Amino acid sequence: MSVLELARPEIRAMQPYSSARMEASGGKIMLNANESAWAPPGDNALGCNRYPDPQPQALLQALAALYGVRAGQILVGRGSDEAIDLLVRAFCRAGQDAIAIQPPTFGMYAVCAHVQNAAVVEVPLAADFTLDVDGVLAAVTPAVKLVFVCTPNNPTGQLVSQQQVERLAQALAGRALLVVDEAYIEFADATSMAGLIDRYDNLAVLRTLSKAWALAGARIGSLLANEEVISLLRRIMAPYPLPRPCVALALEAMLPAGQAEALAHVTLVRADRERMARALAALPGVREVLPSQANFLAVRFEDAGAVYQRLLGAGIVVRDVRRYPQLGDALRITIGTEAENERVLAVLKSPAMDGRGFADGSALGEHA
């Protein structure tokens, strides 16, 4: 059974939009897309008066080398969010099909499902935030077409093992597409599941340049999957999803110098993550620091609301995750620069602060 049989039949049968850039077969005088003949001010040879390639070959080749897959196994879009949305729209019929998730986890899986009017089947993580594989498999009904697994998980930071992923992929063959979200994998003591794609045609992997590669503002995310799935999603994606300046930034980041810089920053984050975990755990009012393989720590407090406001009053914004299941006392703190991390610790160690960020009448120095 082809994995495409799980997709919506009307999507498989539809005639995709053919953009002017897709139809162009070469030439130097481009008069087929109603573009301006003049580049805008400050263009710096980017050619932003012309529509970009829908899937730039140079970027696909660079990402294929980075992720260890073939260029035909990559779909590049506006962050992982676009790939999640495309998957739900391609595989879930409104009012009939469903996705499966394991809360607490990344919220966009459920948001995209709700937009499509697809049901959301929830299988909570265990008390220690590990994946309940048996529970997931027991909950997968014929309506479930997509199973999302986040590793390291957001917002808790724990890993899902390759053994668990393979067990899910094997059991879901012919039943559902398993989507493994690896937005934070560069920070983890683990290898990507991308190497399993040729073994399981119902496995897809989400990757992004937003985190370890410092390109959150460029919005470059990838879906890695077998060629049939990639081809299907290209039918329904926007004609020109990738702005030329964003592609240029991504290609520069993946040059040897950019890769070395990214690796150096990941190394710093991993080291300071462990230091921050120990320091936070030793503070009064901290109940627990959850083990994390990502670039953040989920921290349980005796009064998370008061801590959030205290940090905010000092100009420090962290993520309030108390609305998530099993995290009613937690905040998620991203690992920043050493100075930023020290500022967090200083604020949490200091006496109660007023709204201006002062304690005992004296200012706590600004972070770098």
UniProtKB/TrEMBL annotation:
Record flagged with keyword Kinase? no
Is this entry keyworded Cell membrane? no
UniProt-listed GO biological process terms: L-histidine biosynthetic process
Catalysed reactions, as listed in the record = L-histidinol phosphate + 2-oxoglutarate = 3-(imidazol-4-yl)-2-oxopropyl phosphate + L-glutamate
Keywords per UniProt: Amino-acid biosynthesis, Aminotransferase, Histidine biosynthesis, Pyridoxal phosphate, Transferase
N6-(pyridoxal phosphate)lysine modifications at: K211
* Cofactor entry: pyridoxal 5'-phosphate
The record's Pfam families line, in alphabetical order, gives: Aminotran_1_2
Pathway assigned to this chain's UniProt record: Amino-acid biosynthesis; L-histidine biosynthesis; L-histidine from 5-phospho-alpha-D-ribose 1-diphosphate: step 7/9
Q: State how it assembles.
A: Homodimer.
Q: Which HAMAP family match?
A: HisC_aminotrans_2 (MF_01023)
What family does this chain come from, according to its entry?
Belongs to the class-II pyridoxal-phosphate-dependent aminotransferase family. Histidinol-phosphate aminotransferase subfamily.
Name of the protein: Histidinol-phosphate aminotransferase
Please name the source species: Dyella solisilvae
